TrEMBL record:
This is histidine kinase. InterPro entries: HATPase_C_sf (IPR036890), HATPase_dom (IPR003594), His_kinase_dom (IPR005467), HisK_dim/P_dom (IPR003661), HisK_dim/P_sf (IPR036097), Sensor_HK_Regulatory (IPR050736), Sig_transdc_His_kin-like_C (IPR004358). It catalyses: ATP + protein L-histidine = ADP + protein N-phospho-L-histidine. Residues 248-458 form the Histidine kinase domain. SMART domains: HATPase_c (SM00387), HisKA (SM00388). Keywords: Coiled coil, Kinase, Membrane, Phosphoprotein, Transferase, Transmembrane, Transmembrane helix, Two-component regulatory system. GO terms for molecular function: phosphorelay sensor kinase activity. Its EC number is 2.7.13.3.
Length: 467
């Protein structure tokens, strides 16, 4: 019970209601005492008027008047003269004097608490203003035992009423909490448990239906999270299936390319000048294709292999990429510009960097070709104190907004129609393996530019691999 929201809420509600009732009880008891004493003063004044109406009364009538007023004697001050109107023997010394004229609320509360916690039937003197301006003041002597009994009876009735109000209020609030909070929360928890049993099932995604705004916002956030998680799990399954299929294709393709590589090696012995010039590039392309197939097989088993760092002459690597893309250009009016400083050498895995640049240049060429007009692809590089920067820029139409949102996510950042969205994801992963980063530098109607940042200092294992 104490570990439940409704149970704790019930206890706190009861405590707060009782605290509020105590704050009401104390002043009300003090007010009851003041009214009781003022009533005694009023009765004493009425009794004294009987004496003033006649010159004298007998002792029996005087005792009856005092008994009806509940006092031992009455003193009136009229016309600056203080006179004993009614009197009878006082059984004990006067314990305290209470003046009700202009008394503060705190004093009334203090005196009331003194009476409640004092079981002795003490004699007290009470001073107040006469009613109907019947004099300057009136003073009576009385016992406080009857006053205390009346106050206890009144307080008991107040406490019983407070307890009833507390129980009813707590019960109503308990029912309200159960209806508006506990049941909706339990419903959300049950839905989460149901979703956890089969997170790939989109039918189990929560549908916000709560009436409370805060709880509905929580359900909406939960719906978004479950939707993303379901999509990610489905994507993971598709990637796993694709990985198996690609591994099988890469295995067979590697065998085919190995045979093609053997035939290409024989072309190098040809006497034809054109064949002699093209044969090394053909052999290099086939070798890269074989390496790519082997890397794909390795990726299917684990992940992209770590880069084998070595000194790479960037201008030669860029020339190989551009030559390969020029062969694929055909009738396309695409100009390739190489602005790489001669002799610029950086530390990287040449095969992986080739794949990155090939992906970026191919995307740039296809973007220009899609416009049906002419364009230019520019590859530039610079060396800084702590990093090497390589830029690939084109004059194409720029990336669509949807492609920018998930640019480096597999299957979600595809740019060209019919693409898979893998090229940029693979390129970003390869660059991260070098300790660098691939960034979208700009993309607007004037074209798109990507930037590769490779650190000059190789961390940990990368430095060891380079050595």
């Amino acid at each position: 019970m104490l570990n439940t929201l409704s149970g704790r809420f019930l206890i706190l509600t009861t405590v707060f209601v009782m605290l509020a009732e105590v704050l009401i009880f104390v002043p009300s008891v003090a007010r009851f005492r003041q009214d009781y004493l003022e009533l005694r003063l009023e009765r004493a004044q009425i009794a004294s008027l009987a004496l003033l109406a006649s010159d004298s009364i007998d002792a029996e009538l005087e005792a009856e008047l005092l008994d009806n007023a509940g006092v031992f004697n009455v003193v009136l001050r009229r016309d600056e003269v203080r006179q004993l109107a009614l009197a009878s023997p006082i059984p004990a010394p006067i314990h305290a004097t209470h003046d009700l004229r202009g008394v503060s609320p705190l004093t009334l509360i203090r005196d009331a608490m003194d009476v409640l916690f004092d079981p002795e039937n003490r004699i007290i003197r009470v001073i107040g203003d006469p009613v109907q301006q019947g004099g300057l003041l009136i003073e009576v002597t009385m016992e406080q035992g009857d006053l205390r009994a009346e106050m206890l009876d009144y307080g008991l009735r107040i406490l019983i009423l407070s307890a009833v109000i507390s129980v009813v209020t707590a019960a109503l609030l308990f029912a309200a909490v159960q209806t508006f909070l506990v049941r909706p929360i339990k419903s959300v928890v049950a839905q989460i448990q149901s979703y956890a049993d089969a997170p790939e099932d989109a039918r189990r995604i929560i549908a916000p239906r709560a009436g409370l705004r805060e709880l509905r916002e929580a359900e909406t956030a939960l719906q978004a999270m479950e939707t993303q998680l379901t999509g990610a799990l489905r994507q993971k399954d598709r990637l796993a299936q694709l990985g198996g299929a690609v591994a099988k294709v890469s295995h067979d393709l590697r065998n085919i390319l190995t045979s093609a590589q053997l035939f290409a090696d024989r072309l190098e012995s040809s006497e034809d000048p054109l064949v002699k010039r093209m044969a090394p590039k053909l052999v290099g392309s086939i070798s890269r294709a074989v390496n790519l197939c082997e890397s794909t097989l390795a990726f299917g088993r684990a992940e992209e292999p770590p880069p084998r760092l070595a000194r790479v002459e960037l201008s030669q690597l860029v020339s190989d990429v551009v030559d390969a893309e020029r062969l694929a250009t055909g009738a396309e009016q695409v100009e390739f510009v190489e602005e790489v400083p001669a002799g610029l050498t950086l530390r990287a895995d040449s095969e992986q960097l080739y794949r990155v640049l090939s992906n970026l240049v191919r995307n740039a060429r296809q973007a220009i070709a899609a416009t049906g007009g002419a364009g230019r692809v520019t590859l530039s590089a610079r060396e800084e104190d702590d990093a090497w920067w390589i830029h690939v820029a084109d004059t194409g139409p720029g990336l669509p907004p949807k492609a920018r949102e998930h640019l480096f996510s597999a299957f979600r950042g595809k740019v060209a129609k019919g693409g898979t969205g893998l090229g940029l994801a693979i390129a970003a992963e390869l660059i991260r393996g070098h300790g660098g980063r691939l960034e979208l530098w700009r993309s607007d109607e004037s074209g798109t530019e990507f930037a590769i940042c490779l650190p000059r200092s190789a961390p940990g294992a990368a430095a060891a691999a380079a050595q």
